[in-house]
Design a protein that fits this description.
Layout lengths: L2 H10 L3 E6 L3 E6 L2 E6 L9 E4 L2 H7 L5 E3 L8 E4 L7 H17 L3 H6 L5
Antiparallel strand pairs: 1-2, 2-3, 3-4, 4-6, 5-6
């Protein structure tokens, strides 16, 4: 997937927002908490980091072009060093899961306010 397609997909997730941080990095959040991050659009090579479940972390970090995310590996984050390391359908599923994992950790009041639950 291209950076614009990833950005567009992440922003379709309920309550997702985009924040520019650390210079020009694009950070996707839900309820103020990060679930994915990409480097600047003009960075080459482009990379993408996102939150995973522990079992997914173990599986993904065994694959080519996917490594434990710097600074966030202990929190089960992975980094794709090439955006095509996963097929688009799989990447979308992992990003949706990252969003869901982070959203599940938000206070109930915040989840309700964001329309994530009743």
């Amino acid at each position: 997937m291209r950076t614009d397609a990833i950005e567009k997909f992440c922003l379709t997730l309920p309550g997702a927002t985009l924040s520019i941080q650390w210079g020009a990095d694009r950070v996707f959040k839900v309820g103020g908490k990060m679930f994915a991050a990409m480097g600047p659009k003009d960075a080459r090579p482009q990379s993408l980091s996102f939150k995973t479940a522990p079992d997914s972390f173990a599986i993904l970090t065994e694959m080519a072009h996917i490594v434990p995310a710097p600074y966030l590996a202990r929190a089960q984050w992975v980094q794709l060093t090439k955006l095509d390391a996963l097929p688009a359908k799989a990447l979308k599923a992992y990003l949706a899961r990252a969003h869901a994992i982070v959203a599940a950790g938000l206070p109930k009041k915040t989840r309700v306010a964001l329309g994530l639950e009743d």
